[in-house]
Design a protein that fits this description.
Beta Polymerase, domain 2; 14% strand; 8 helices; 2 domains; alpha+beta; 202 residues; elongated
């Protein structure tokens, strides 16, 4: 039993070490994919045992701890990015926008991109919308191997933040095969309001 307890303590210590290194990679190097961050952290630490990799929840706790010490302004930056996202989503309401990525999950840094999923069966509809409102944008080179590569990803700047607009056909809104984490405007506004109130109370 003593040997098992020692082994468990060692495993827990390894997971904690990887989690804190992964948290630093997320916070400082903007690696927002948890799987990528934990694998890179393990490599940097010379840990080859895949069983020692921490859970996403352990990384979230380590990231919260890291930012409370080294990036206490993170909550304000995140609130600003989310407010910008809500403003853009209101502007693009005709395209059923969803927020996705690091701004939604909460791991975004001050200079992170805002990522929106937009849905229309006309790949050119969003561009016409932006052109008619004299909003400057650029095309992001598509990956031809991805689904919906014939639908554009556009990027524009809003209040010093890059906003990536990923256009998809309407069928993709109904068929979220990858179970991507995403949220509509009507889901975001009460969520962000509750989080802001919790932050103020804390």
């Amino acid at each position: 039993m003593g040997k098992n307890a020692a082994s468990e303590r060692q495993s827990s210590a390894l997971r904690a070490e990887i989690a804190h290194r992964a948290a630093r990679l997320i916070a400082e190097d903007h690696i927002f994919d948890f799987a990528q961050a934990k694998k890179k952290a393990a490599r940097q630490l010379g840990i080859a045992d895949g069983r020692a990799l921490p859970s996403n929840q352990e990384i979230e706790l380590a990231l919260e701890s890291y930012r409370s010490i080294y990036q206490p302004e993170h909550g304000d930056h995140l609130a600003q990015l989310r407010a910008k996202a809500v403003s853009i989503m209101r502007l693009l309401a005709d395209f059923q926008p969803y927020l996705t990525g690091s701004v939604l999950s909460g791991v975004a840094g001050a200079h992170s991109d805002i990522n929106l999923l937009l849905f229309s069966d006309d790949p050119k509809a969003l561009e016409l919308f932006l052109l008619n409102r004299q909003i400057d944008y650029q095309h992001v080179e598509p990956n031809p191997s991805l689904r919906h590569a014939d639908y554009p990803t556009l990027v524009l700047w809003y209040d010093d933040s890059a906003v990536k607009l990923h256009v998809r056909p309407l069928s993709a809104e109904r068929n979220n095969a990858r179970r991507d984490e995403r949220a509509r405007l009507d889901q975001l506004e009460p969520l962000f309001a509750a989080q802001a109130a919790t932050s103020v109370a804390a």
